[in-house]
Design brief:
The protein is an alpha/beta fold. The chain has two domains: 2-138 and 280-324, Rossmann fold (3-Layer(aba) Sandwich), CATH 3.40.50.450; 141-276, Rossmann fold (3-Layer(aba) Sandwich). It has eleven helices and 15 strands. It has helices spanning 15-28, 40-45, 53-56, 78-91, 103-116, 140-161, 176-185, 199-211, 250-262, 282-300, 332-339, and strands at residues 2-7, 32-36, 48-51, 96-101, 120-124, 164-169, 189-191, 217-222, 228-229, 232-233, 236-239, 245-247, 266-270, 306-311, 314-319.
Length: 343
């Protein structure tokens, strides 16, 4: 049996731990693993890397993915790319493919299984924690900790200069990172896509706290917040290959409005890809390892068209098509807990 594995979409702490676990389990069963380089692009261009335990054993604490990644969508130019992809699957005699990615990458996997009977197993991945099929995704905990550490450092300069710091996190459609990190650092205000942005209230909170003697402020904002205030609106300048908008930076816009409304010096920091980088936390290493082992077991037992997921602390498998049905919005109870401190 020969299994392939690819990682697609944005990189994520814990991807290498998944690769390591898959290779180990497949090797233990007496079979081989072929790495596909740069996601679906590697299957289109026939770019591969044989994987063995000695090559992958030390990967558990390494960030990124040794296979590389891309946001290539083989269905965007299906007449050109799909035949090449399917031919390369046959050329390497792959009995199954383990696909590690978010909703876009897994959506491609689902279409390949449904329309072309490609044997696939999915592993959900995103730092945004916005896949409805699983309670938590690996990479999320690392991202929250990175944001928390960054804000802890920014707080000292905010205190020194009596400023408000607006910190923009990732979260194109959901506010999981912003909410969790904001709670962890005791932010003065948190803005997420799920809750209408009320900058008048935000400015009122900051002004009242300054009057009470707090001479700095921390506002955490998710990049996907939609803002309409004083004639200014957040916009997107382009779409990716899956048709998703690329945010252009809501943080600086919010910082400008806060400064205008409060007369408090305000600065914006966009953390951007820092949130994806570096070594995964212990929690993410463990979750990624468990998911990788479970995915390999599914493939080895020919249980294709399935997706591994975390449910009530257990790794289970569900139909792959569930991965593309719905975005997992921020649980309102978390925002309720955060907002208790800025009412």
């Amino acid at each position: 049996m020969n299994l392939g594995i690819l990682t697609g979409g944005g990189d994520c702490p814990g991807l290498n731990a998944v690769i390591r676990a898959v290779v180990q389990r497949v090797h233990q069963a007496g079979f081989s693993t072929l790495g596909i380089l740069e996601g679906w692009k590697g299957l289109i261009q026939d770019a591969t890397l044989p994987l063995t335990p000695d090559r992958t054993d030390g990967l558990i604490g390494q960030g990124g993915t040794i296979l590389g990644s891309s946001r290539t969508n083989p269905f965007k130019d299906a007449d050109r790319d799909l035949p090449r992809l399917l031919e390369n699957l046959k050329r390497h005699r792959l009995d199954g493919l383990i696909v590690v990615g978010g909703d876009d990458t897994l959506g491609v996997a689902h279409r390949l299984k449904r329309d072309h009977d490609v044997a696939v197993v999915g592993v959900p991945k995103t730092i945004d924690n916005d896949l409805n099929v699983t309670e938590f995704t690996f990479g999320f905990d690392t991202a929250v900790n990175i944001v928390m550490e960054a804000i802890d450092r920014l707080r000292t300069t905010a205190e020194s200069h009596r400023r408000v710091m607006v910190v923009e996190t990732m979260g194109r459609q959901t506010g999981w990172i912003a909410a969790f990190a904001g709670i962890a650092v005791g932010a003065d205000y948190i803005l997420v896509p799920e809750v209408p942005a009320d900058l008048d209230h935000c400015c009122d909170v900051l002004t009242r706290r300054r009057a009470q003697g707090k001479h700095h402020g921390i506002v955490v904002v998710s990049e996907g917040v939609q803002l309409l205030h004083s004639g200014l609106i957040s916009q997107y300048d382009e779409l990716d290959s899956f048709g998703h908008p690329r945010p252009t930076g809501i943080g600086p816009l919010i910082a400008r409005i806060i400064e205008d409304l409060t007369n408090i010096e305000t600065r914006a920091v966009i953390l951007g890809h820092l949130q994806r980088g570096g070594a995964p936390t212990a929690s993410d290493r463990i979750l990624a390892t468990r998911m990788g082992l479970a995915a390999a077991d599914l493939a080895l037992h020919h249980h294709f068209g399935r997706l591994v997921a975390l449910h009530q602390g257990r790794i289970v498998d569900v139909p792959l098509d569930q991965s593309v049905t719905e975005i997992r919005k921020l649980d309102p109870s978390y925002y309720e807990a955060a907002s208790a401190f800025f009412r």
